[in-house]
UniProtKB/TrEMBL annotation:
The gene is lldD. Keywords: Flavoprotein, FMN, Oxidoreductase. Pfam families: FMN_dh (PF01070). InterPro entries: Aldolase_TIM, Alpha-hydoxy_acid_DH_FMN, FMN-dep_DH, FMN_HAD, FMN_hydac_DH_AS. Glyoxylate binds at Y26, Y131, R166, H277, R280. The lineage of its organism: Bacteria, Pseudomonadati, Pseudomonadota, Betaproteobacteria, Burkholderiales. GO terms for cellular component: plasma membrane. FMN binds at residues 79-81, 108, 129, 157, 253, 275, 308-312, 331-332. Its cofactor is FMN. One of its GO terms (molecular function) is L-lactate dehydrogenase (NAD+) activity. SUPFAM superfamilies: FMN-linked oxidoreductases. This is Alpha-hydroxy-acid oxidizing enzyme. Residues 1-382 form the FMN hydroxy acid dehydrogenase domain. NCBIfam families: PRK11197.1.
Length: 391
């Protein structure tokens, strides 16, 4: 690595210089005013730790289990669309880095690399993320493809009955592959390293959809198809149907309300991801960390709880654990690493989080991640309440 990398922010700075603007902005943006996108990180930062001394912290244990799977630390790589456009073969590289580190990787439905392609090249089983779309036949076939690939868990994203308006994507004319307009071509040519890598790979479209969904034989067909596929009728009955169809571990992503959390568990969820889609859907929604305690209390141990949104450090991971999560999932953080240095960048991101988590646990007098509790945080349930703040 040519630059000195000390934190995730350093990776972001390098990625911004190496990834074409339309794909960098796709990662580093939220919907509308981006208030929820910013709050995800800023609300985590407002949680102060209780520093402890006089504790025997010679043996720090960060290993645990996620859905029964042994992991080196309570972190997973969240589903992130277009990873293969942030870096050539991005999904394969990220999955390999996760496997080497001993944490789960979740492949997105709107990935560039297909399920089958990743299964051939990944070093370990991976989870698969699914949207319920109007074409239920296509969804059933996706589920069967994930089963055939040996995916140990299915992640159902529930918060996309309509796509949030993301102003940067609209201004940039985001498309896959990029439109060869004068403006688009000049933006790509400004990133010669990226262009060279894309010329060496054949993975340049939505591998899980193009050639698999009815009438989608190319990217133009994909755009027309996906605009018709957002389904506003999706309900908890669909979750029960999917659980029965899948038969394995089911994770429901996009839960921000205690009532929805209880419904998810009743419908068969083995785990819940507290997530506002990284601030990319409902702008003005609370941050994920604000929603976490109420969801964890509502579930009451009947399912595992994960946090997604705003996690940029090992300290954020520990904050999530303290307020009720079993693990934290990162999206933008590892995508910055991927855009900066490919597989090595993702590995560096995970190593940064591990070191930060270990250091913070040590200074807080905590030796096992499983023992994280609200006692780690100064005033954990009033940290967000300031003048005029009634969240």
């Amino acid at each position: 690595m040519s630059a000195v990398i000390t934190c995730v922010e350093d990776l972001r700075a390098v990625a911004r210089k190496r990834v074409p603007r339309l794909f960098y902005d796709y990662v580093d943006s939220g919907s509308w005013s981006e208030s929820t996108y910013r709050a995800n990180a800023s609300d985590l930062a407002r949680l102060n730790f209780c520093q402890r001394v006089g504790c025997n912290v010679a043996d720090i244990r960060m290993d645990t289990r996620i859905l029964g799977q042994p992991v080196s630390m309570p972190v997973g790589l969240a589903p992130a669309g277009l990873a293969g456009m942030v870096h050539p073969d991005g999904e394969i590289l990220a999955a390999r880095a996760a496997a080497a580190f001993g944490v789960p990787y979740v492949l997105s439905t709107v990935s560039i690399c297909s399920i089958e392609d990743l299964a051939r090249h990944a070093a370990a089983p991976f989870w698969f993320q699914l949207y319920v779309m109007k074409d239920r036949d296509f969804i059933e076939r996706l589920v069967e493809r994930a089963r055939a690939a040996g995916c140990p868990a299915l992640v159902l994203t529930m918060d996309l009955p309509i796509q949030g308006q993301r102003h940067k994507d609209i201004r940039n004319g985001l498309s896959v592959p990029p439109r060869m307009t004068l403006r688009g071509l000049s933006a790509l040519l400004a990133r010669p390293r990226w262009c060279a890598g894309m010329l060496r790979t054949s993975r340049r479209t939505f591998g899980n959809i193009v050639g698999h969904a009815k009438g989608v034989g190319d990217t133009l067909g994909f755009s027309e198809w996906v605009s018709r596929q957002f389904d506003r009728t999706v309900s908890w009955d669909d979750v029960q149907w999917l659980k029965q169809r899948w038969g394995g571990k089911l994770v429901v992503k996009g839960v921000m309300d205690a009532r929805d959390a209880r419904r998810a568990v009743d419908a068969g969820a083995d785990a819940i991801i507290v997530s506002n889609h990284g601030g990319r859907q409902l702008d003005g929604a609370p941050s994920s960390i604000r929603a976490l305690p109420a969801v964890a209390q509502a579930v009451g141990g009947r399912a595992e709880i994960y946090l997604d949104g705003g996690v940029r450090s090992g300290q954020d991971v520990l904050r999530a654990l303290a307020l009720g999560a079993n693990a934290a999932f990162i999206g933008r953080a590892y995508m910055y690493g991927l855009g900066a240095y490919g597989q090595a960048g993702v590995a560096r991101c995970l190593d940064i989080l591990r070191r930060e988590l270990e250091s913070t646990m040590t200074l807080c007098g905590l030796t096992r991640v499983q023992d994280a509790s609200p006692d780690l945080i100064v005033n954990p349930y009033t940290a967000f309440k300031q003048q005029g703040d009634h969240a």
